[in-house]
């Protein structure tokens, strides 16, 4: 069973049996409550915040996919991140990858510093020296995101998880950009995987969801209690949609990542492109690490156009297949204007210090024909 590949696990992993009618796919059970035949004779489910058959089937599939023993599906990726923080005592300290997802940064800085007394140190996790010196007596967790958004920097998961274990720290990896298809953080020693399932797991830009997955018994027990206490669990409808999406993860990822590599190669050779960030290209500074811990370079390609604001507007306006939108991971190709969209709240000076310019664009590559996508980019870049 453990030797089965992701493609098979996506279809057959987890416990998807329908005990009612032997349906080939778990039905959507919308009930809030479950009847108890007699006093003291409750069944597996009692109340849907605590447990729901549709959500449970989906969670078992997620756990199988990431190689864990337990998954909890939440209402959004942010709800999953928020839930992970509930594992920590008040006034705990976290070490966080420097270019962490904007929503994660906002939750940490604008909320949890105030409401839980948490404190955060942001460091480039590739600088082991810096990570080691950031450890304090109250440090409880290292928050890893790899690859990062939008510049696709990687973190050596094995190195950081080893360091964390030596210092008795928890590790949580935001695996949204890769999913288990590209990398399995638990196999590198991570304690928890966090996912925004709104992206590649759902895959069709039609749901918001998140999850935490672990292979540790103690964390599974804690997370299960916490998710019931906090209550931000995924609805049965969303669990159904996400499970439906998850089934085709392999074929989607295979196409999307292959398309992304072709597009990255095309753009690298184009005179109007100043920078191409894609871990699957040998020119990426961490290409060796990519080969070590990822199956491919992923399906996101970030570029910097040559030119000015007008060039950027013209390029985006001309694109016919790449739609201008927030988010990523859907079957349709998307373009994101990082400076005004995902990093719109970061001041220009700070943003540029991070390497994100007005001319920086993030492409989320879909499952369309690669040549058509390249033709679209070609005509949009023409003089
Ligand atoms: C989208 C995203 C999140 C947040 O997930 P939501 O489902 O939007 O709440 C967290 N991390 C990363 C890397 C993301 O891309």
Automatic annotation (TrEMBL):
CDD domains: CGS_like (cd00614). Coiled coil: none annotated. Its cofactor is pyridoxal 5'-phosphate. Pfam families: Cys_Met_Meta_PP (PF01053). Gene3D superfamilies: Aspartate Aminotransferase, domain 1, Type I PLP-dependent aspartate aminotransferase-like (Major domain). GO terms for biological process: cysteine biosynthetic process via cystathionine; methionine biosynthetic process; transsulfuration. GO terms for cellular component: cytoplasm. The keyword RNA-binding does not apply. The modification N6-(pyridoxal phosphate)lysine is found at residue 199. Keywords: Lyase, Pyridoxal phosphate. It comes from the Bacteria. GO terms for molecular function: cystathionine gamma-lyase activity; cystathionine gamma-synthase activity; pyridoxal phosphate binding. InterPro entries: Cys/Met-Metab_PyrdxlP-dep_enz (IPR000277), PyrdxlP-dep_Trfase (IPR015424), PyrdxlP-dep_Trfase_major (IPR015421), PyrdxlP-dep_Trfase_small (IPR015422). Belongs to the trans-sulfuration enzymes family. This is Cystathionine beta-lyase. It comes from Veronia pacifica. The lineage of its organism: Bacteria, Pseudomonadati, Pseudomonadota, Gammaproteobacteria, Vibrionales.
């Amino acid at each position: 069973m453990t030797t089965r590949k992701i493609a098979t696990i996506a279809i057959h992993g987890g416990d998807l049996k329908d005990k009612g009618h032997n349906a080939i796919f778990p039905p959507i059970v919308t009930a809030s409550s479950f009847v108890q035949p007699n006093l003291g004779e409750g069944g597996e489910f009692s109340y849907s915040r605590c447990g729901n058959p549709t959500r449970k089937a989906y969670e078992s599939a997620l756990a199988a996919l990431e190689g864990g023993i337990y998954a909890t599906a939440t209402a959004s990726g942010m709800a999953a991140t928020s839930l992970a923080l509930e594992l920590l005592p008040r006034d705990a300290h976290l070490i966080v990858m420097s270019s962490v997802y904007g929503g994660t940064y906002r939750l940490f800085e604008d909320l949890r510093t105030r409401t839980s007394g948490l404190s955060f140190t942001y460091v480039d996790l590739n600088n082991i020296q810096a990570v080691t010196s950031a450890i304090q007596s109250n440090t409880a967790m290292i928050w890893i995101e790899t690859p990062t958004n939008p510049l696709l920097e990687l973190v050596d998961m094995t190195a950081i998880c080893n360091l964390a274990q030596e210092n008795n720290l928890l590790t949580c990896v935001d695996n949204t950009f890769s999913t288990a298809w590209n990398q399995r953080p638990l196999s590198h020693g991570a304690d928890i995987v966090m996912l925004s399932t709104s992206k590649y797991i759902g895959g069709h830009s039609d749901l918001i969801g998140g999850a935490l997955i672990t292979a540790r018994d103690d964390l599974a027990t804690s997370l299960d209690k916490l998710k019931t206490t906090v209550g931000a669990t995924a609805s049965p409808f969303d669990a159904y949609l996400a499970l439906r999406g998850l089934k085709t993860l392999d074929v989607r990822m295979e196409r999307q990542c292959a398309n992304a590599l072709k597009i990255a190669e095309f753009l690298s050779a184009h005179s109007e492109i100043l920078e191409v960030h894609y871990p699957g290209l040998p020119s990426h500074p961490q290409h060796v690490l990519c080969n070590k811990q990822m199956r491919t370079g992923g399906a996101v390609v970030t570029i910097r156009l040559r030119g000015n604001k007008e060039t950027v507007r013209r390029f985006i306006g001309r694109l016919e297949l790449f739609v201008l939108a927030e988010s990523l991971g859907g079957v349709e190709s998307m373009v994101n204007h990082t400076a005004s969209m995902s990093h719109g709240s970061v001041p220009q000076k700070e943003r540029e210090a991070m390497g994100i310019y007005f001319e920086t664009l993030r492409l989320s590559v879909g499952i369309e024909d690669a040549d058509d996508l390249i033709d679209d980019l070609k005509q949009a870049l023409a003089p």
